[in-house]
Design a protein that fits this description.
binds protoporphyrin IX containing FE
Length: 83
């Protein structure tokens, strides 16, 4: 896996929401925060899994997430990302 600790819901939340991306901020449309609550379009996490131009698509080296799973992530962010 990469270096993002998403091993539990709490760890994932802590490392994603409102946190500045460290590895690939360039090529993400100028966005540099992993998850911006309410704004999937500004969230590096969403860009990385949805295939938007943001470096390597995640999960790296594996099949892309299903459209349903990508939609779940989008909805989660756009409804507040647990905030
Ligand atoms: C669904 C699973 C995954 C998600 C949601 C995910 C998400 C992300 C995100 C949001 C970043 C950007 C982090 C930052 O710039 O701060 C990233 C970078 C990275 N991930 Fe993943 N990742 C996943 C799976 C994987 C896997 C399986 C690998 C390796 C086998 C991997 C390797 C990397 C690497 C090397 C980077 C840095 C290079 C880059 O940003 O393109 N990831 N990932």
């Amino acid at each position: 896996m990469g270096k993002l600790d998403m091993s539990s819901e709490a760890n994932a939340f802590m490392n994603l929401v409102g946190k500045t991306a460290t590895l690939a901020p360039t090529g993400c449309g100028g966005n540099s925060v992993r998850v911006v609550p309410m704004m999937s379009a500004k969230s590096v996490l969403y860009s990385k899994v949805s295939g938007a131009t943001c470096g390597v698509r995640m999960p790296s080296g594996m099949a892309a997430l299903s459209a349903a799973n990508i939609a779940t992530i989008k909805t989660w962010i756009d409804t507040g990302a647990g905030m």
